[in-house]
Specification:
Blueprint lengths: L46 E3 L9 E3 L24 H7 L5 E3 L10 E5 L6 E5 L5 E3 L1
Antiparallel strand pairs: 1-2, 3-4, 4-5, 5-6
Length: 135
């Protein structure tokens, strides 16, 4: 593990130094969802930050605490539950697999990947030359 990761305080307990680089999901120090600030509040609709280039759906934001919730069911940080509306259902659908021509080797239809729903960017791997592409 890199030394710089260990300098962050734990999100849940200020007297603990985080050993996971503030990757809170699954951390043993994290309280159960019901014990968090909004864990027992009624569900709210997610708020959305639009994609910078307008090509994707954008990113979900917790309406209760303003953090990226890291889930469309319940906020990792405050425990707020979210209404499972049509936009959330669409966001949770797996992306369609795309085949494109590889810019590295010129292979026709050998680049297999998908477009991210959040920002519309393509990422994939060429099955011929194994080049990784992120646009």
């Amino acid at each position: 593990m890199n030394d710089y990761i260990t300098c962050f305080p734990c999100h849940w307990h200020e007297n603990i130094v985080c050993a996971k680089g503030q990757m809170c999901d699954g951390c043993e120090n994290q309280p159960s969802p019901e014990k968090k600030k909004n864990g027992n509040a009624p569900p709210l609709p997610l708020e959305w930050v639009p994609a910078c280039d307008g090509q994707g759906m954008g990113w979900p934001v917790c309406p209760a605490c303003g953090e990226m919730p890291y889930s469309t069911i319940r906020c990792l940080f405050c425990g707020q539950q979210f209404i499972q509306d049509r936009r959330v259902q669409k966001y949770n659908e797996p992306p369609d697999e795309l085949r494109e021509d590889c810019p590295a080797c010129g292979g026709k239809g050998t680049l297999i990947g998908y477009r991210a729903k959040s920002n519309g960017h393509f990422q994939g791997v060429c099955e011929a030359c194994h080049a990784h592409v992120l646009e």
